[in-house]
What we know:
Helix content: 25-40%
Bound molecules: iron/sulfur cluster
Radius of gyration: 20 Å
Largest sheet: 4 strands, mixed
Amino acid sequence: MESVSIVRAEDVSKAVGDLYREINTHLRPDVLEALNEALAREESESAREILAALLENQDISREDGIPLCQDTGLAVAFVSMGDQVVLEGGTLQEAVDEGVRNAVAEQPLRASTVTDPLERRNAGDNTPAIVHLEHVRGDRLVIRLMAKGGGAENMGRLCMLTPGEGREGVVRVVVETVRDAGANACPPVIVGVGLGGDFETAPLLAKSALFRDMGQRHPEPALAELEAEILAQVNALGIGPQGFGGRTTALAVLIEQAPCHIASLPVAVNLACHSHRHGSVTLKGEQKRLAD
Ligand code: SF4
């Protein structure tokens, strides 16, 4: 390696803070488009009213710069760090936490993190963020950030199927998960599915799938077909927007897969609510030549 790319921790904090505020106040174009398409298709009067209210809600958020929902979510970051990147002035966790802390104070955003799962002491600033790091080739730091609402997150599920249960078993697990979530996940939901990997990576695949643009079909035809089949079955459940009935229970099913053990078929489902908030930012540091 002839040079390194110096990324300052304070720049990471600034980028994360700006992104966390932005995603909490601006519904993504792909979600907006999916909601509008759902409204055009819906036949149920109550479902149409709720979809129209969600669209009006996001208009108000965008215009007034206020959060889309009172639950401003846990900050979850998936970070890809190029092998030439050197982070200067702090660790990645410190830098992301600082950005989240500043956004929560400045926006303000709701303090949604407790430091102890049983004592329930509120951290007051939504830290620590959840940070997942992968090392890749290159000179950039890419941060994908999600504000993950608790209602939808609570309804996630991991099932370790046997290979014999196959495609049919996968469809059953995903549809049952959405059915059992009912109104608790704040539908219409986006269904992230992780196939394969192992006990801890399948849920990561499911959450990672939720970062995909909903307008994109899966590049592998077999998985694109599986996504469409599950979406049709989920929408046939009749749960509808906010659980009041209708054909719009989910806006999309998004699958990520990975190799797995010959004896396993892990399936994880991670649901996102109608306030599906995520975005990304890319930082390219200052280039510095290494001494010979
Ligand atoms: S799950 Fe989503 S829509 Fe429901 S309360 Fe939480 S952030 Fe809001």
